[in-house]
Automatic annotation (TrEMBL), chain A:
InterPro entries reported in the protein's UniProt record: AcylCo_DH-like_C (IPR036250), AcylCo_DH/oxidase_C (IPR009075), AcylCoA_DH/ox_N (IPR013786), AcylCoA_DH/ox_N_sf (IPR037069), AcylCoA_DH/oxidase_NM_dom_sf (IPR009100)
Pfam families, sorted: Acyl-CoA_dh_1, Acyl-CoA_dh_N
Family: Belongs to the acyl-CoA dehydrogenase family.
Annotated Acyl-CoA dehydrogenase/oxidase N-terminal domain residues: 6-90
Domain Acyl-CoA dehydrogenase/oxidase C-terminal intervals: 188-322
Keywords for this protein: FAD, Flavoprotein, Oxidoreductase
Protein name in the entry: Acyl-CoA dehydrogenase
Gene3D superfamilies recorded: Acyl-CoA dehydrogenase/oxidase, N-terminal domain, Butyryl-CoA Dehydrogenase, subunit A, domain 3
Organism name: Geodermatophilus nigrescens
PANTHER family reported for this sequence: ACYL-COA DEHYDROGENASE (PTHR43884), ACYL-COA DEHYDROGENASE FADE28 (PTHR43884:SF20)
Cofactor: FAD
From TrEMBL, chain B:
GO CC, one annotated term: plasma membrane
Keyword Iron found: no
Cell membrane among keywords: no
Organism phylogeny: Bacteria, Bacillati, Actinomycetota, Actinomycetes, Geodermatophilales
Location of the Acyl-CoA oxidase/dehydrogenase middle domain: 128-222
UniProt name for this protein: Acyl-CoA dehydrogenase
InterPro entries named in the record: Acyl-CoA_Oxase/DH_mid-dom, Acyl-CoA_Oxase/DH_mid-dom_sf, AcylCo_DH-like_C, AcylCo_DH/oxidase_C, AcylCoA_DH/ox_N, AcylCoA_DH/ox_N_sf, AcylCoA_DH/oxidase_NM_dom_sf, Mycobact_Acyl-CoA_DH
Amino acid sequence: MNFDLSDDQRDAAAGAREFFTGSVPLSAARGALDGDGAPAPGRKALADIGFLGITVPESAGGAGGSVLDLAVVAEQGGAVLAGPSLVTAARAAVLLEGAPDLAAQLADGSAAVAVLDGPPTGSAPSVDAADATLFLALDGDTLVAGEGEVVPGRPLDATRGLARVRLTSRRVLAEDAGALWARARRVGAVVMAAEDLGAADRAVLMGVEYARQREAFGRVIGSYQAVKHMLVDAWVGVDQLRSLVWWAAWAADSAPEELPLAAAAAKAYAAEVFERAAETVVQVHGGIGFTWEHDAQLYWRRAKTDRLLLGDAAEHLDAVARLAEAGALG
Amino acid sequence: MDFDDTPDEAAYRERVRTVLADRAGDLLHVAPGEPVDARSREADLRATQRVLAEEGLVGVTWPREYGGQGGTLVQQAIVAQELARARVPTLINHIGIGMCGPTVIAHGSDDQRSRYLARLLRADDVWCQLFSEPASGSDLAALRTSAVRDGEDWVVNGQKVWTTLAHVSDFGILLTRTDPERPKHAGLTMFVVDMHAPGVTVRPLRQMSGGADFNEVFFDDVRIPDSERLGEPGEGWRVALTTLMNERVAIGGAGSDIGQSAESLAAHARDRLPHLDPERQALARQAVGRALVAALAARYTGYRRFTTLSQGGVPGPEASAGKLGGTAAARLVADAGVRLLGDDAVLGATADGDETWQKAQAYVPGIAIAGGTDQVLRNILGERVLGLPAEPRTDKTAPFSSSGGRR
């Protein structure tokens, strides 16, 4: 058994960390929330460094990498609340397997792609739709691409670029696309779980750093078991989430029959773990953690948003139970 | 990334499977999750371990010079996985193999090693670990059982408790206080004690789950020769740390479930869910799904630890997270399993007499306490992994006798 990243994947993660740290200050997420600027690093920068095409085939101008390759990069983007999301790139790359011209535009950033959830006549709030120009949607059982009329709402987390969209043009990409759509959504869920992993990890770290400095009653608050145990529980969740994210990404690449179970488990667990980490980092900071100025709320906003995107925990837990009943555990 | 054995591991696993199949007639087998009472099955359990020892499947990681196989932690994990797969119960001497024996190897005399270790591996002698006391559980170094030097012997008085397998044990490793005037950690000494010696009294304790796996042990003027000391007088804490480090290796988890398995819950859900009221089914599925996700999270985290072992690493303090996560999963799995019973969930067994899930439920509180309570594990992780400071401890440097510890 070798349930670990390869050296190349570790190097890629280190490179991605450097890129995201250098190009995504948390002030960008705050600025977007205040209506003062866009999420960073933005589509162009992500395309230029090649992250939008990690899972796009080389023949279409991508890197031809694996979902796991993408997930280790997405984790680093999640840590700094980067936008747009690599969920969109992952999901679109699956949907555009039969449309290499559009896949190439996804990878090089010449098309601003978003994938719509819900009916194309009026979608649910969909990730990265707010500034997109090319939308992918499932119309009945037909996969379509088109332009659309975009209606952003007031954001809870401005880095997700959520907007409702009504398609105004329609190019048929594939008929009988239900299974393809479901696989793309599962791969998207895995990558979102990877972004949530990075964000939850960073939130716990913020809480730990503060708990090592802040003093109350004559000693640092991290020495009190009431505070320490809260942080440990959040950390254990993050550690275990990493295992499910790796497994699910590996399944997407190498064991497609395990993907439904693994993706549902990873997404359900990510929702729970990230929410707990975000609530913990606010609580550990006390009053300052509840202020608009503090960065804790930016993680909290992402957690409260992501937990409901691409299926909430209830949907995924139900799927896990049904798959297990049907023999998915063997 | 892959979940396959390396060629070496696959060959080893194949050999283990072959042995377990060839010797199946000589081995005890139980249903998955079925508790085994050590007292009533003692002869079968000892015989089973003896057969496995003959086949080289006991003491896998022990050095060859002491009767072990000189193998790797991965090989040991493979043996454990295959024993579980073949439904062979936990070895009767698992505490001796995992904790007592390694302590004798590290701190015993040549004479002790030659007298004890081979017999331990064959289950000719069963061993127990005499650490916890009524007034020192998590705070092990506060123990009060005293050993006083008298000529060539030490005279031991006091009481141990929660001693698993003491009722079938022949020997134990015994942590005592030999110098109450020194700080709590500095006045301890470890011995090998003959459990059949005059003055040793073992009383089984019945657990809330109904079984009786552990005991209280009383020592009344028990004489132990100085030659049975493990390590120097006053070095008992250091010796105990050897034992506890081996305990971490033994229970750190490498991908095997604690309590009822995810598979058994899935099978149970398949059987029972259709019999619940339709409006209860959605709720039950949520509980089953949540439990399975927790179990899978713990299992795949175990696979990461297993990989560390496979690459030649050793378990660090993060292994404590494995037990914490496994315990949390076991709690959810047991709870979901009980809920699936419908009306029978409020009874101690189902109408047809099955008590699997009620037992699992009643066993969970013990899992969260034994081998490091959830709270102690959180302290270990908080302090050694997250780098948070320990709670101040007023008793650490004062003489034990001045900190309320005098008998």
